[in-house]
Write a structure and sequence with these properties.
This protein is α+β, with helices and mostly antiparallel strands. It has a single domain, classed as Nuclear Transport Factor 2, Chain: A. It has nine helices and five strands. It has a five-stranded antiparallel sheet with strand order 1-2-3-4-5. The longest helix has 26 residues.
Length: 211
């Protein structure tokens, strides 16, 4: 195969890859995606409201079904682990275990939080298109006349958006969880394995601390 043919073939392959990447971008606009996820979750919580009373296991199952597929747990893990996510500060096994544990507790946090909002009205704020790779969409929950803004920072995963961080009433949960994890590492004598095993992110504590 001569040089010209090789160059032409390479250019064709690269063009196909670029075109494929373009078509792989999420088809939904960010606010459409967020509303779909919120509607699906809250409608399920409302529909099963009676049998969910004092049944956290059932709430957790619904949240896992409705929300878990749309969480970018790898990105969230990097945010929360902070410097401990760097290869020089942790092993691949430690990062994988942290992600597994964190995903479990994240579902519990979201379950309890969204269950509280399930009987409230909510609306998606007007969205301004940006070129950011991590667009932010905000939902206002109306809690007895008080608006509670919940902002979702998204990640473009090719075929769909995923949620990589959440901000509640101006409080960056990823950053608050990072502070909680750093405190857990210190509490466990800087033993990362023990810190990972014992870490329980607490969204309510993060929000209350900032009030």
């Amino acid at each position: 195969m001569n040089t010209l043919v090789k160059q032409t073939l390479t250019a064709s392959i690269l063009s196909a890859l670029v075109a494929g990447s373009a078509f792989a971008r999420p088809a939904e606009a960010p606010p459409v995606f967020v509303k779909k996820v919120a509607d699906g979750l809250i409608k399920r919580l409302q529909a099963d409201h009676t049998k969910l009373q004092n049944n956290p296991t059932a709430v957790k199952a619904i949240v896992r079904e409705q929300l878990d597929p749309y969480i970018d747990s790898q990105a969230f893990t990097r945010i929360v682990m902070g410097t401990y996510a760097n290869p020089q500060n942790s092993t691949p096994a430690q990062r994988a275990q942290f992600e597994k544990n964190f995903r479990e507790t994240l579902i519990e946090n979201y379950g309890s939080s969204f269950a509280k909002f399930s009987n409230q009205t909510y609306s998606v704020r007007q969205y301004k298109e940006t070129n950011s790779a991590n667009p932010v969409v905000t939902i206002d929950f109306n809690n007895k006349g008080e608006k509670i803004p919940v902002s979702f920072q998204l990640a473009d995963k090719g075929s769909q958006w995923k949620i990589r961080n959440i901000n509640v009433s101006g409080i960056d949960l990823g950053l608050q969880f990072r502070n909680q994890f750093a405190a857990t590492v210190k509490k466990n004598g800087n033993d990362l394995n023990k810190a990972i095993a014992n870490f329980k992110p607490d969204a309510e504590a993060a929000v209350e601390k900032k009030k």
